[in-house]
Amino acid sequence: MTPEEEAMQAEIMAEMKAISEKSSNSRFDQYEKKVVSNSVQGAAGTENSDPNGDGGAAFLQGNPEEPSMNQYWYSQPTISALTSECSRLIAEGGADFKVAFLSTPSIYFALSEAERKQCFVFDYDKKWESDRGFVFYDFNDQETLPKELHNTFDLVVIDPPFITREVWEKYTASSKLLLCVDPTENSPKGMVIGTTVAENKDFMGELLGCKPQAFRPSIPNLVYQYNSYANFEGAKFLGKPNPEID
């Protein structure tokens, strides 16, 4: 990479970091809790690969984005692809396979009702707190992760509200608390799926052992492009390019 290209990349990263960190110190101060319908069951009939067959359409229709919380949703086809990957892993893992969705409610709610019984969604937004699988989660406070859920999950799915390494380090700490432990090595084991910018490739590998996948998610109202990452081989739906983007 030439010095000019390195300078340009550094400038792009600085701009993205500034966007990501805007209002981060008081990101929830202006947030007023909204009581909305918790319905997530969509009408059948649309052919998609996710279990509900609506590609998360019901979730998108019932849950407007909250920019003050850096809350920007994946597109409907992207939700469908990510949900399909999770559904595949749940089916292969069986009834004891558990999934933790960290700041990824759109994927959780696009799963079938039966699949959600094996899952929990960890989020700061309490408008979903009436759901059986909801767990309040503040990534700045690991104490918000119930101890009874420590080391009980086979897969963690992550989409932080910010792209900085500092935030990803906190989500990594959460993941290590939630993932099952290998008794022979006394270290976390399990699968991780995450989405963030391509420039985070190096520390995604360092922190979580994740590699970029062919699938690049679409987030229509976000100003920069994300990649998908996974720490396991053989991802089916993440292993193919997203026709929305590529």
UniProtKB/TrEMBL annotation:
The keyword Methyltransferase applies. Residues 39-62 are annotated as: Disordered. It is found in: Cytoplasm. This is Uncharacterized protein. Residues 39-51 have a biased composition (Polar residues). Keywords: Cytoplasm, Methyltransferase, Transferase. Its main location: cytoplasm. The keyword Cytoplasm applies. It comes from Tetraparma gracilis. PANTHER family: EEF1A LYSINE METHYLTRANSFERASE 1, NUCLEIC ACID BINDING PROTEIN. It comes from the Eukaryota. It holds the Pfam family N6-adenineMlase.
